[in-house]
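Q: Hi! First time doing this. I have a protein sequence and I read that you can turn it into a structure. Is that right? Here it is:
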Amino acid sequence: MTRDGSGGGPGSGGGPGSAGEPDSGANPDRLREAREAVVEYAPALADLTPGRTGNLSVRDGDAVAVTPTGVPYDSFDAADVPVVSLEGERLAGRMAPSSEVPMHTGIYQHDRPGAIVHTHSPWATTMATLHQRLPPIHYMIAAVGREVPLTDYAPYGTEELAANVVAAMAEAGSDAAILANHGLVVTGPDIETAVENTHHVEDICRLYLRASAVGEPHVLTDEQMATVEERFESYGQQPDAE
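A: Yes, that's right. Below is the predicted 3D structure, encoded as structure tokens:
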């Protein structure tokens, strides 16, 4: 993986701790912001995944605010949002956490991103059923790495799946992975970036599958991707130089 999520706002790291309710040393203001970010961005899952099958989380230090399991994405508030430790211990929240907590906490333990999005979005999940990694057919894949690797299959919600995801992302140096016969996971330094990059990956999966229907997609070389990565460093609005 390529970005560690260490830094300032909610979902990008910070102080130690948990959910504010337990006396665990968390920064209550930052953790409240993390839970509010889950509420704000959870409805975005409705555009990316069928039913109630997706989930997302935001990390504040050693505490993780995660979407609750099995409820509509617009039906809960910040006090409902479950908070778990990096070991998966439930710390706070009126609702039970997502069944994919082991995957979220496994990724956070390994690479410490600020946020994670998991979907069953149609194009990425089609790739998952084909057991197909996503190669660099479009330069925007550089938002997450030089490829999106394919994990080995494991049942959902298991430590085995978590280990497979961590291993695949680490080996590929990617902030995303296609989960065999399952879906997609994307990490980011904050939840806004993670959601945006989930859309990027889904769109490139769509391009790959459509192009593959009529021919063999051309794959960018390592040299070409290195140039893209260099240009990405100055992309967008940059702070004024002092």
